[in-house]
Amino acid sequence: MTRSLSVFKRLLVGEPFTSERQHSLELSKRYAIPLLAVNPISSIAYAPEQVFLIMAAAGTAAYAFSVWTGLAVAVVMLTVIASYRYTVQAYPGGGGDYRVVTANFGPRAGTLTAAALVLDYILTVAVSVAAAVSSLAVLWPGMREWREWACVIAIVLLTAFNLRGWRVPGRVAAVIALAFVVGMAALVLVGLVRIAAGDELHPLSADFTAVGEASEQTAAALLVLCARAFAAGSVAVTGIETFTTRVRFFRPPKGRNAAIAITAVGGVTVALFVGIVFLAYLVGAQSSSDPQRQLAGVPEDYVQIPLIGQLAGAVFDSRALVLWPVMLATGSVLLLAANTAFVGFPQLGSVFAQDSLMPRQLHKRGDRLVYSNGIIILAVAASILVVVFGGATFRLIGLYIVGVFLSMVLAHAAMVRHWRRVLDVERDASRRVRARRARRTAFAAALLCAIVLGIVAVTDYRRGGWIAVIIIGLCYSLMWFVSRHYKFVAEETELPQAKPRLPSRNHAIVLVSSVNRPLMRMLAYAKATRPDTITALTVNVDAAASRALLAEWERRTIGVSLTVVDSPFREITGPIVDYVKATRRDAPRDVVTVYLPEYVVGHWWQRKGDTRNYFPWSGWLLHNQTTKAIQRQLKYVPGVMIVTVPWILGENHEAPPLRRIRR
Hints:
The two termini are 42 Å apart. The chain is built from 24 helices and seven strands. It is α/β, with parallel strands linked by helices. It is elongated, with a radius of gyration of 33 Å. The chain folds into two domains: 39-487, Amino acid/polyamine transporter I (Up-down Bundle); 506-649, 3-Layer(aba) Sandwich (Rossmann fold), CATH 3.40.50. It has a five-stranded parallel beta sheet, sandwiched between helices. The protein has a two-stranded antiparallel sheet with strand order 1-2.
């Protein structure tokens, strides 16, 4: 069984890498920077659509507010970008929101930020893959019927890709990111030029009328929907924080170069976001989460395609020569964004494990020099969310916003405190002016992010926000428990200042069930450890069998006294544990070493012609059950050491002859 699992593992991840190859697998600057840009840029593929999806609930007339909503989102994006510009310069060592919050608000707030970031990375994979499948379904409509399972297959492929330690070449990442930006820019510019020239761009959804369920409601309801659309569109901010975690990949001065990169990538993202929202408004494109109920006049077989697909079809007249590259670039950049989460989350999980917020196994690299445990956890969690929410991007966005903006609120609030501390000690006039400007920017970013988070908490709580709260709460509780446990273990195992006291004596107890070769091996090994006393112990559950054992013991003249303890209720484990505890109670400063036999069954092909025991799991089913039961009981008794002496069945091992063992 173990060998079969090993073969399967080798087929899945390949042969292990030596530690010397770790440096060659690290991200280079040429590879890192394009991937850093992928996260914020890829949000253009689904963020503008969220504005129109919410507005559809208020009817066609509400689309007039879509441009103003998009501009409000752009203000949030520009403010967050400006604040992060100061963050990367204040913390050029990197670390991201978690390090910033921990440094300024302490470990509890840092743990809350870490829990939010865990959800952020999980939703990055789920949302990006779901949006990628929706985009590619424009080219292959058959994918829509199996949307969630197509997402799961994509996640599995990304998992296998990263478990093998492979990396997307830097040139490929740069080409994909550039192709997407060029495609979106061409979409906006060509569309606006054609509209200015008098061409009528007509997406399919423009033929319908959005009636929604709130079209006849009051202005207050419309205001609420605008607020919801503003919050949903603010998902375009996602990915900017990635730059704060990878400042080390920039050339010196690292902070300044990272700030320039944030400005450039953020500026492109804001421009494309506003341009797509404006173009969609001009051509009358509509998006609805429930077309049959919210759009009047739709046929029964109508299928809602993503907003980018609608605009591309209208602007380029559904020409395959142009439509295919645009949609392929969109799907590719989204899958690349999901892949960056598979690179970033395991590394972040390693940081959390190093800080005792997650199990230490997440800090260890696997056979292919990647954090395999973190990759698997991320894949499983993202797959569960994709299946539960049916692979629908719109339904996942509500969860995504909670995790993203909770960490951003804490991070920018922490920067407000950071700049206040700087002002307390800084005396240079120009630096004080800069610190005041940075503090005002951080305060504005924290306020706007808090507004977005508050809108989602109030209006979208039933749409999935409560699930995000539960996930963050569970992650926080798990991190708190893990941190507390590791702290307790560290305190428990810390060496005292005084010289530690050694055990006074060592008492060896060898458990006996019958006189055989494994027993003689245990006795020989126990004697080799030079204990102060050695006792052979058996339990009397059958009087006739015990008398036969005593007679055989005396006949063999083994030379070690055999102690027999009675068991009125025919139990074996209890009397042995009681005897060991009594030995410890009589001499609290002594140590007791209990020797147990363990039968090891090899594989059936190692029998060398012996077909009497061909079942490979017989060692688990037919042997060692009593040994395991005794181990489970004795491991909780302080001052007791448990030694298992293996005997490999079916192999020719030399064993001590059954003769007297002299003391």
